[in-house]
Amino acid sequence: MSKALSGIRVLGATRMLAGPYVEMLLADMGAEVLHVELPGGGDDSRHFAPLINGEGSCFLASNRNKKSITLNLRTPEGQEIFRDLAKISDIVVENNRPGTMDKWNIGYEHLREINTGIIMTSVSGFGQTGPYSKRPGLDIVAQAMGGMMFMTGEKDGPPVRTGNAMGDFLGGLYATYGTLSALYYREKTGLGQHVDAALLDSIIAVLENVIPNYVGLGRITERMGSRIPGIAPYNCYLAKDGYVAIGVSSNALWKRFVEVLGRPELYDDPKFNSPSKRVENVEEVDSITQNWVAEKNVNDVVELLNEAGVICGPVYSVDQLINDPHVKARNMAPEIEHPIAGKLRVSGITPKLSLTPAGIETPPPSLGQHNEEVYKGLLNFSDERLKLLAERGII
Amino acid sequence: MSKALSGIRVLGATRMLAGPYVEMLLADMGAEVLHVELPGGGDDSRHFAPLINGEGSCFLASNRNKKSITLNLRTPEGQEIFRDLAKISDIVVENNRPGTMDKWNIGYEHLREINTGIIMTSVSGFGQTGPYSKRPGLDIVAQAMGGMMFMTGEKDGPPVRTGNAMGDFLGGLYATYGTLSALYYREKTGLGQHVDAALLDSIIAVLENVIPNYVGLGRITERMGSRIPGIAPYNCYLAKDGYVAIGVSSNALWKRFVEVLGRPELYDDPKFNSPSKRVENVEEVDSITQNWVAEKNVNDVVELLNEAGVICGPVYSVDQLINDPHVKARNMAPEIEHPIAGKLRVSGITPKLSLTPAGIETPPPSLGQHNEEVYKGLLNFSDERLKLLAERGII
């Protein structure tokens, strides 16, 4: 069955997370992705702890549906082979330090000369321009400088980074958005272009109304745990066997909520009878809610509130998450079978497309698994040349 | 100058954040976006606190580059007008409760009958299918059930939601990725489809290696503040005038780091001479780092470490962020001028496209600002019909 991006070829000079994630999003939708790795060790994330039967779980999580080829881009011959592959590709993805691709003679200007339709997508910590562009990036620095860490965490505690590498994922998602926009434009005009995504920019892009609130009202958004400024109760509460998240976003829901609590008199109590009153008295609102939750199990809280139409949900750990019936029904923790790591589960695919659903067709490849297929099939290399290139460490 | 999505028309029956954000991403790239709002009050986010000169800052943050039209989709005549607009549109975006569009006779099947190429993109809390699909969604519940809250926060503290509505942004980003993939497929085949994005799915999609680590190793990813499992130091440290984020991701960088600290002997100290040793002794590594940082200002720490090539950055609050020279150079907090709210700044555009750069052409529209332009220009309504529709509360 054909997929949305069937027929598109992607050449990826990436490693670790943000770049490989762009490749994976394109591969999930049906693009043929050639993940270019250094001969010998390959993508660093293959070796990054923790390992599952010797395979880095970071690599296992972000490289399904791809082909792996080895190629040493630090050698002139490797660069020439890369250019030959770029000639027959639609998209090049890379997440090297800005300037590196140019130094290797495979920057956007080099590739455009040989393929005017090529789209090159670069993801980096700080972007291709600006005073910090040459600095190496790390997720924690993007979250810190992008303003997200400052506003995440407990009110009286230190700033907190999200438990996942959110900067890398957002960088990859915005890069993909730009790449697909450029692909549409290329279909109309035949012209490719360079897409410049940055982890730092991507964090700033999701700051919601934080910048206008400061510029328009002088308001600096501070840490406030799981609360938000405009709604109460809206927090995470401790039940007997775990945490539960509850948000009561209107007067109508507040009415249902206090009825479930068996305290209908709170509905029109002047301390609580409007969203702004409840926010003003948030400590009392949270304390009433916490006391009610404390006596129950998470499942009971969720069931009682859902029956009444109040929005809530358990704070899942990963073991609970993958066993939830809805998560199963949406196939959001699908199984993959890897020849060495064995049977695993990974994060599933979103969104769901009705006509061309994305899917997991192949597990993450072993290093250089597709050298023969690609070099012989696409570039017509002889067995002898392949052997020589391997001996010389070029592939 | 033409933009990547120039010529594409988007009809949006959305409100609040996730749906309007999809519209904005398409509008930034040049699509003509008609944001459909309820006559009278319009998009709820127009009234959601805080207000800037009476304009909701959430609305101001997520609706640039769009046109606003009013239309009551609860009336048969409003639905008929919506169908007439869908006939001449490329994409419909909606974030109503699943089932609502069908109830209004403007679901995907209704629209496909009159426009086989239409792409309909739905964003909801739990998606269009599965046992919880009809439940209302909220960002905090997606972050909770998606497994992200469980692993975000201090080790001994409660789970923490990110300070922004990350579920809405991720839901919007994945929806856009699916929409643009479907748009490419439509260019090739003429066929549209339904794109089903969910906040919960989107949080699960960014869990990194959390699911394989559990399934393959029995490891449940726990909260650990700003630390990560594989690297130390990698944390946020308190200087004299604020916090700074530092990540030392290799032995080479560890060498440079301890030289800056004036303690080169730590480089081959058996307690610290490999990444795994440093992780094993993370308390001591963090304490050495914290003690050094504590005596300095943030700027001094950042300058000293950057000179040595060690990856670090300040934990910016919004006021610091918008004044950073790199953020300014990348135009990531651009000014907009709104007729009522005045001069503001908002989050900027990412990624940067070399040939068709996205840009902010118009500020968020007032309610129904483009009724005449759209209803007269696109649907050839007479002045009289417009007047009658307005009197009857249909537009």
UniProtKB/TrEMBL annotation, chains A, B:
<dbReference type="InterPro" id="IPR023606">
    <property type="entry name" value="CoA-Trfase_III_dom_1_sf"/>
</dbReference>
<dbReference type="InterPro" id="IPR044855">
    <property type="entry name" value="CoA-Trfase_III_dom3_sf"/>
</dbReference>
<dbReference type="InterPro" id="IPR003673">
    <property type="entry name" value="CoA-Trfase_fam_III"/>
</dbReference>
<keyword id="KW-0808">Transferase</keyword>
<dbReference type="InterPro" id="IPR050483">
    <property type="entry name" value="CoA-transferase_III_domain"/>
</dbReference>
<protein>
    <submittedName>
        <fullName>CoA transferase</fullName>
    </submittedName>
</protein>
<dbReference type="GO" id="GO:0016740">
    <property type="term" value="F:transferase activity"/>
</dbReference>
<dbReference type="Pfam" id="PF02515">
    <property type="entry name" value="CoA_transf_3"/>
</dbReference>
